[in-house]
Amino acid sequence: MALIVKKFGGSSVATTEKIMAVAKRVLDEKKPGDQVVMVVSAMGDTTDELIELAKGITKEPYRYTREMDMLLTTGEQVSIALLAMAFKTLGQPAVSLTGPMVGMKTDSVHTKGRIIDIQPERVQEELDKGNIVVVAGFQGVDPAGDPVTLGRGGSDTSAVALAGALKADTCEIFTDVDGIYSADPRVAKGARKMKEITYFEMLEMARLGAGVMQPRSVEMGQLFKIPIHVRSTFTTKPGTIIREDYTMEEKDFEIRGVAHDEKVAKIAVLGIPNTPGIAHEIFSALAKASVDVDMIVQSIRNIEKNVTDMVFTVAIDDLSVAKDVVDKVADKLSAIAVLIEEDVAKVSIVGAGMLGNPGIAARMFGALSSKEINIDIISTSEISISCLIKSSCVKEAVNAIHDEFFPNGQEQ
Ligand code: ADP
Ligand code: ASP
Ligand code: MG
Fold first, then answer.
1. Which of 2, 104, 151, 241 has its CB 3.0 to 4.6 Å from that of 169, i.e. a possible disulfide?
2. 286-299: per-residue pLDDT in tens?
3. Cα of 227 to ligand 1 centre, how many Å?
4. What is the whole-number distance in angstroms between the Cα of residue 19 and the centre of ligand 3?
5. DSSP 289
């Protein structure tokens, strides 16, 4: 007997036909005695459609994050009810439960809440009664009892966290690709499927934009030591296992993958005093507003006047809040101007193999320059290098970099 958590993303449950197909597949694969918890996302593009709906009221709905959560949590509630119904029509007892009902406790940071505790007793009770338990992903409840969502792609995190809390034997993420690839297979023509990837490398890929897994979900997997099997909803072939270490003969990869992120914006605060405490002033105000800042560059504008520019990137969904915060600080610092650019994208290479391998960065920049793509900002971590470029060049950039590091014939 095994306890299995299976998560199905939006495209896997996009129509009632697909929901029926998911229910049938799960029953076909379920062995007698298996206990199954399903975590599901909103149907198809429902979450995007709900955001568009809110834009009918205000151009910047993310200023009203509590109400956004009230709105967005409805999407998952529709799919859990329909999937539980689908099981029942097939003769399988099932029950649908929302995030609050499964004890998914979060902090109060609306639209990007973090799970602080899970009390899954109700889930276990329902499993012990013989039900398949169908749980709404992406949502939890804060200490005030208000709904909180976990950030875009948050159903992955709901699933892995539940698997951890229930001490599940396996956690499977079913999606519209058949595993993790060396780059987004919708963008890179030569992308290769991986058999395995470490939490460490996957976390960096996800953080830098590989939307197939939400970064928090990979952290949860690592925390609970749960291998995560990412696989296709539409075929039965094995996918990719995200785990602590490689179990197969380790290949000597220079890099593990290329990630890109188009949902970023650049903010430049021009002409601020080049004195101690200025960076703290700007970034602590942003942190207070729960805005994550990524690439940061400080450059000298005028040495004689001791004036500097501060340039950084934020997630596009945070832009309206970030702009308000930065405008206030810029006023206080008598900055010359605050400039915003939205037509930017970040392209990155990731891999533990690049540690101590100095030629890697030059090859990445060479691949970009061969396509005449200008680099605006460069940032690095221990296992990644990222470049900010014009968003119109992103597809070409991903392919050029991928071709450089994954020439034909190299297997994953
Ligand atoms: P779901 O709705 O099932 O959660 P997502 O759209 O969130 O699905 O994630 C799957 C998508 O992630 C794929 O369709 C693919 O375009 C994208 N993706 C980005 N990077 C990668 C990668 N390295 N490997 C596989 N898929 C990726
Ligand atoms: N429905 C949510 C989203 O589109 C959560 C998820 O799909 O994981 O972001
Ligand atoms: Mg997803």
1. 2
2. 999 999 999 999 98
3. 18
4. 17
5. T
Q: Which domains does the chain have, with CATH numbers?
A: 3-248 (3.40.1160.10), 258-405 (3.30.2130.10)
From 157, 175, 263, the mutation candidate for ligand 1 (largest count of ligand atoms within 8 A of CB) is 175
Distance CA 132, CA 140 (A): 20
Measured distance CA(115)–CA(95) in Å, rounded: 23
d(CA 113, CA 164): 18
Instruction: Render pLDDT for 218-276 as a digit per residue (tens, 0 to 9).
Output: 999 999 999 999 999 999 999 999 999 988 766 668 899 999 999 999 999 999 998 89
For 319-374, write each residue's pLDDT tens digit: 999 999 999 999 999 999 999 999 999 999 999 888 778 899 999 999 999 999 99
Residue of 41, 53, 157, 213 to mutate, ligand 2, most atoms within 8 A of C-beta:
41
Protein residues with C-beta less than 5 angstroms from the ion ligand 3:
9, 153
The C-alpha angle with vertex 218 and arms to 159 and 348, in degrees rounded to 5, equals 135
> Given this model, what pLDDT does residue 408 score?
72
Answer for the pair 157, 150: CB distance below 8 angstroms, yes or no: yes
Q: Which residue puts its alpha carbon closest to atom 8 of ligand 2?
A: 153
Single pTM value for the model? 0.94
User: Are the CB atoms for 159 and 217 separated by under 8 Å?
Assistant: yes
C-alpha separations of 223 from 165, 197, 213 in Å:
11, 16, 16
Give the model confidence (pLDDT) of 65-107 as tens digits.
999 999 999 999 999 999 999 999 999 999 999 999 999 999 9
Spatial distance between the Cα atoms of 7 and 9, rounded to a whole number of angstroms: 7
Q: Which atom of ligand 2 is nearest to the CA of 75?
A: 1
